[in-house]
Each structure stands twice: as C-alpha cells, then as structure tokens.
Amino acid sequence: MGNSAGKLDQADLEIYQLLTYFNKAEIIDCADKFFEMIESNPETSNVAAAVKERRLKLQQVKMPFSVIENKISALHVNPFGTRLLQVFSGGQTLQNGESCILFEDFLNMMSIMGPSAPLEVKAKWAFKVYDFNNDEKICSKDILEVVKRLTKPNENSAIELKPEELAEVVKNVLEETDLNNNGFITSTEFQQVATKSPEFQHSFKLSI
Fold first, then answer.
1. Range of 74's domain?
2. 185, CA 20 to 30 Å: which among 40, 50, 111, 194?
3. Would the pTM count as exceeding 0.85?
C-alpha cells in the first residue's frame, strides 16, 4: 500500500473513509501519489523530509496544477483536466499566483471521479465543471466551450468543426437537455439527463 500510511494519522484515515467513496487502501494510494509529486517537484521537494518526519502534515502542502497534470497522464490528456482541478481546488493559489490544490481536495476529486461514487454525485460535480462562468447554470456559451474542447483537433482527429456546425451542436444539446425551455440547463436538468446516459457513466472518471 505504499509508505504514506505513516504520513496520515489513523484519525485522518478514518475520517477520509467516512467523507469519501474510498477505502483505506485507496486513500493511502492517493497519499502516496501526492507525496511522490511533492518529492518530484523542485518547488516542494524541500518539504518532503518535513512530511516524512511528521514535522509538516501532508494536508498542508500546496501542489501546483502543472505538476499534477504532468504526473497524472489521465489529467494531462483530458480536455477538462485543468478545469477539474480548478473546480475541486476551490481557487487555491501559491504566493506567485499559480493555481494549486491541497491533498484533501485532490483526494475528494479522485474519489468523485472514481468507480464507487454514485452517479448523482458525479453529475453534480460534472455540472460545476461544465459551468465555465460559474453562474450555476449551463448556457449556450458553456456548451460551446464543452463542444470545442471535445472536438479540438489532435493526433487522432484533424477535423475541426466549422462555426455553423458548432452552433448546430449547441442548439441540439439545448433542445435535448433544456427540459423547461428557458434557454439554459439547470443542475436538476443536467443530473436527470446525465444519470441516464451510459456515455456519462463511462466518461466522467479518472484514475492515478
């Protein structure tokens, strides 16, 4: 299970088992990965010894997004990787202004994106991820941003949708999901559609 068991208090492990959808082994795996990133990052490697010697708690270390995206390939290739970190970190930043995430927020993200989290919970967080302007609704601009990220040309696809094609996709998504026809998607509407979608069940996940 790695060597991070000694870096997390037993009380912390018990609380995390209550607050997440992870078991003890999975929590320790996340702690191992987070500590590995602390050691590998030049900006935080100097505190690794302090964490090992229990002079500093793992939960106190702020991890830059850039390090996490570099070390976790599933985040690096995910078109919503940075956005996921933004939503789950709650806007944490380092002194230099760089975005970062704390261990408990990282653990929560991995738990929600894991296989044991209920679909309703996953849908609730997915709504936050796709609500790019943070106005508690998914409007046409949010949908357009989602579609652009999903259809961005890469090594597997060199075809970029034309503006009129993007507009048509946005229109279709609204027609299918905006159940009360008010021009945007509410959290309730999104959850109703997402939890019934096999594609959502298989796509909103992440592993280390």
1. 4-112
2. 111
3. yes
